[in-house]
Every structure is written in C-alpha cells, then in structure tokens.
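Re: weekly structure request thread

Next one in the queue (266 aa):
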Amino acid sequence: MQDWSIYLTPGAVERQLGLFCLGAGQQTHGPRPAAERALGCHALVWLQEGRGHLLHGPDRQLHEVRAPALLTLFPGVLHGYRPATRWRHAWTLFSGPATEALTSLGHLDVNRPVRRYADPQAVDRAFTRLLRVSRQHNAVQLAGALYDLLSQQAPPQGDVAARLAELACTPMSVQGYASALGITVKELRDAVRRTTGSTPHELILSTRLSCAKVLLAEEDLPVGVVARRVGYDDPAYFSRLFTARVGMSPVSFRRSGSLAGRISSL
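Done, posted below.
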C-alpha cells in the first residue's frame, strides 16, 4: 500500500450539510512511538494491520489495539500511538454540528476510543468508499460516506430500541415494556436515549404514528380501526394526538399527506 493523503477545505455550502470531511488517507508506521498531540477536529483511524496501544485522554491511559480495530480521536483530547509492530491504517478527519448529535446518540464516545469487530467487513467497505469519494470533490457523497462509516459505530444497546419499536403498538406501561424485554426500566431508558436521543415514551409514540401513517396511506380502514391497531382504544384521543404531532388530521393525511393518497386522487 502506498501512503497518500488529501486535506480538504469545505466551503460555506458544504458546511451546511452538517458533517464534512477535512482530510483522508492511508499510512504505514514502523514500530516506534508517535508524537502525542490533540486534534482540532474528530478523526477515525481504521487499523488494518498491526498491534500495540493507543494513548488517550488527559490521564494518558493506554488502550490495547489489535487489527482490525477502529480508533476514534476527539478534538482537544490528547492521543498518541504506541505500535508494537508495523501499523497499516486508513484515516479521516471530520467536523460539523452533526457531531454533537452523533455524540448524544453514542456513535462518538470519548470513553470508548477503540472498537473491535467480530466481522470487520462492513467497516472496511465503508472506509474504502470514503477514501474513494474523498478525491472526487462531491460533498454530498462524502458526507454520506462519513455517515455510513459512523453508523458502523452503533452503540451496543441499539437492538433494545429496535425491539421496543416492535412492541410499540401493544399497549403496555414502560415497566411492562421493560419486563417484556427482560431489562430494568433504567436500562431501557438508558439504551433508548443512547440510540435515539429520546425517551421510551417518545419512541413508542413515534413508532405508533409511523404505523398509523402506513395504515392510513395504504389501507382503506376507518380511523377508529387504525387507532386500535396502533394501540389506542379511544379514536377521538388518537385523532387529537395525530393532529397535534403530524400537523393534520388522520383523514387529511390520507387525502393529501401521503404518496398513496396523492396517487389515488390523480
């Protein structure tokens, strides 16, 4: 592999995308310590070959690293490489206001700078794509490649939110949902917050509304039937809730808010 690098200077419009790449490349290091420093932006380093340690944080903690592994570096946080063998890695620098949301959702976790994967192929494909598009001067594709790569850093609690969504249309208390998932209420709340940035109640509500929209758009069902199918025994309450959250009534959504409604009216 030949070493190469590219550094980018996104314009004002590119920065409005919320996430933008500042550089990318591939490098090989010999088994010698690298200088310690702190970056002014975030970085991802995909270790493809080698082993050693990552020095990270103000306490200069050493984290064991063994390829394949993804290292996350944070702005203003001290880091340094301590390879025990030759390191071959790809890297990217990035920034933007979306990093705050990605941090809240657990995709960027300063307490977890090293991640290893049982199946590294998805991360490797995502990094390969990012390296390719970094030299194509297409800001939208590059932002998409960054999101694709960062999505591989999904928090380990991610399946809890998905399992909760599967149960959302069955009326239960939060305690009932937690019991059905075999976890405590606190574990449920923490997992949903880390994955979605919201609460179990909000995830349940948004899932029910999404299911209701599908039924309204694709089925010729009375509003009362739709309400019961998504977990509400009171159609009037469901209609008020739907209108407050969606900005139009269930009937109006069926007529003008859904693609199916527009097609059928043509």
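Confidence is low (pLDDT under 50) at residues 262-266. The beta strands are 4-7, 20-29, 37-38, 42-49, 51-56, 61-66, 69-73, 78-83, 87-95, 114-116.
Next request, please.
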